[in-house]
Every structure is written in structure tokens, then in C-alpha cells.
Amino acid sequence: MIPKDVINWLTDNNYGIVSSSHPVGGGCINNGAILHTSSGERFFLKTNRRTPKDMFAREAEGLDAIRVSGGPTVPRTYLYGPDFLLLENLAPSKRRGDYWENFGRQLGTLHNQTNSHYGFQYDNYIGSTPQPNAWTEDGCFFFAERRLLFQAQLAQERGLLDGSYVARTEALAARLQALIPAQPASLIHGDLWSGNAMSDSQGNPALIDPAAHYGWAEAELAMTTLFGSFPRSFYDAYQEVRSLAPGYEERYPIYNLYHLLNHLNLFGSGYLSQVRAVLNRYGT
Questions:
Q1: What is the pTM of this model?
Q2: Is 191 known to be catalytic?
């Protein structure tokens, strides 16, 4: 069912009535549909009646934040409520031949937007899991407290991670200063796996479903390898715009532990072996 607020907004802004709609698959948490209006315009509508009441508001703010000059395409946000988000329809087309090179450079441009502190103006969500973003000057403290330990403690509360592995997570978090080189607080998408890397109507790179915040750019790149790596040309082009410290790929498992813990919390024990493997690898 299309929310009444959406119907009213379309009418008030001279887009007419919704002449038809069809569902779009691919989402793990929300429902998606393309709305066709009598004016000929199309919109993308996300709905979920079981979502936290502020989740779509936080997503809209994240989309607006990562829409930067020279960065990837980001759909415009039109309207949101407790159970819906109305967006520009990207109308994805076949990726251009230089899609991955352009994507690498554009993501580097996004990451070149920096802040003096790590975090974001609001707490938000990664998937449907709360993501705390209170500002801090220390990147290691931020990643330890707001990312690794938050997820590990949540998993323990849900009976998904036993106390010994929570203790191992705490031990790894305490060693971050020695394992991770100093990095600026970069504006990152925050949930950049292949499913959130789209194309627009011209075949150019586009981003959807952010968990936006100022964090470590290396952590963003790490996630692009978690469920199947992007092509090498993407990473080479990225470094034309933004250089990376030596050994950055060796640090990927530490960053990806956050996402593995989140998937453990979202989808269950199928991710437990990967969480344990990372903690065992670092001898914690």
C-alpha cells in the first residue's frame, strides 16, 4: 500500500496520481517499488512497517551527506516518514565501460571530505542495527567503542557470541593503536558492498543505502572485498585521487570484523565462524 503522505506529496507537486507500481527485489530488510505517475515521472519508494521510527529519516540524511561534487551519483530524497522513504528513481542502465575506474576516483573524492572528529551528527543504522556515532577525536577509540565493542556486546546479549569471544574482541580493540596507522576522519558510505554499488540511467556509478559517517576510509575499502572484491581497476583508480598507506589490504580483516559482527546480529549464527576466524587470526 502506498502511504497517504506520498500520494498527497505527488499531487501537491504536480506529479499527478500513481498510475501503476511494481515491486523491486534485492533488499534484505525493506520493500522497494517503482511508482509510475500520470505525469510520466517515476519514483522509488521504500517501505517497512516494522522498522525503527527514525530509520528512514537517518537514511535520508545519510544520502544527502554523501552527495558531494565529483562523487558518485546519489538519489535525491523527496519525502520520508516512520515507515517509508521516497527517492529519485535511478533507472539503472548497463554499466559504462569505464564504470569501475570512475567509481574508484569518485569514491576517493568522497573520502577526501574530512572532519576533525570521527562520528556523525546523528546516530543512524547499518541495516536495521543501531549505529552509534557520538563525536570523538580518536579514531581508534571510535572504532573500538562505537563499532567493534558495540556489536560484540549486542551479539552477547542476543546469545550469539559467548563471553570468551567478547573478551577477545575487547583485547583486539585495545590493540588498535598498534595495528592501525593514523588516518583522517573521512566521509564514508559506511555499508559499501556490491549490492549498494549501483549505476544511474547513464551507466555511471551510484550509491544507495548508506550508513554514513566520518570514519576510516580503509574500512570502507575493506568492505568492498567482504562479499566478493571489486575489480583491481577500481582500487588503482582510487589511488589516483587518494593515496593509501602501505599494507592497507592486510588490515582489512580488522575492519571487516565490524560487518561480520553486524551480520551475526542481523542474520544469525551462520557468520559466527568468520567472526571467530578473525579473532583467532589476531591471537586475541
A1: 0.95
A2: yes
